[in-house]
Design goal:
It is found in: Membrane. It contains 17 helices and no strands. It is an all-alpha fold. The chain has a single domain, classed as Orthogonal Bundle (Hydantoin permease), CATH 1.10.4160.10.
Length: 417
Amino acid sequence: MIDKGARTLSGFGTALLWAGVAVSVSEIWAGSLLQDAGLFAGLLIIVIGHLFGGLVLSASGTMGTRYGIMSMQSTRMVLGNRGSIIPSLLNVFQLVGWATIMLALSGSIGASVGHRLGAPFNSKAFWILLIGAGTLAWSFLVGSSKLQWVHTVVIIGLVLISALMTWIALNPHYYTMKPAAADSFSFTRGMRLMDLVIVMPISWVPLISDYSRLAKSERGGFWGSFLGYGIVSCWMYGIGLVISLATGTEDPAANILRLMGTLGLTIPAVVLVFASTMTSDFPDIYSSACSLFNINSKIKPAWTMWGTGILTIILALFFDLSRFETFLNVVGAFFIPLFAILLTDYFLIRKQDLTGLDFAVGSGMNFSGGFRIKGLLVWGIGTLVYFLARAVDCPLGASITAFLVSSVIYLLLEKRT
């Protein structure tokens, strides 16, 4: 729990934090996964996917603002004190995975852009070590007043560089859109691609309350995260989609940043790679400490942050980026059903009233032996539904299907008891 007097994030500050998370080469890269949809359908998928995923993200964060609890602590309501250890461990794995992917991707792009500057800037390992060290240092400043003004300056700088990057991407002198493919594009295929959009904001749901609990107001926390992340993430996806459609590349971020280098914009390109990865990666390191603290309060956050930071640097040196899409689907399969259950419990069953609940010892919560079997069972069913929906090309897509099935089953079981 965190006292209201210690909360320092305004609505604007919250928006800047999440905008910084969204300005990421990984989000540009993810936009390339939608090129089968074409421009119009692709942009529509991006917007709708972010509306759904963004609402889940920001709604989940309201618990942190109102009650000052961390994201993984909130899962104790539906899984039990000991049951919440399972998503906490999964969250640590996905946070390490995300930090590793972004470091590995940024290392490759940094080396590609920096080849014009020579050694050591043309080395992938150099960029991974540099960005990894910067991210780790940034993580220790979360919640500090010293971070806020620096963070504001960095995010404004990133937005300006992103605007320059967008101008280049839309300039027909550099990129010319190719005619749309003649093949028909089905609704089912569109929903399958939307899963790859929805999962991006959903991947931040297991840690949003770690930051929304620092917000001064519930309204500012909700709209700051919804608009700050949603708008900028759509923007990054859109850039990736446009460049991929124009060039056929599967790595649009590297493509446009290399082009910026040839146009004499090497320094802005390098700044974007370094700063965007740092502002996107530090929540992973900080929140891994929060998740492990939920498992055992004796685990010192500083040790966890050091361990996570160093581990991601080592893993990034060897990670195979071709596994990116598989990683996204695994994240969606586990966390979409979980937070469908949690939001159903919080908004529809408890009516946003957690009075009398003690998240430290579990008093006021209905579970036995530290586990809430009902919640664990529905979570398992929802995860299975996600994988099955992907396998059979469910018309609604895996994300929305798993969310609805998990929510309805949990609600029905609660009404019967």
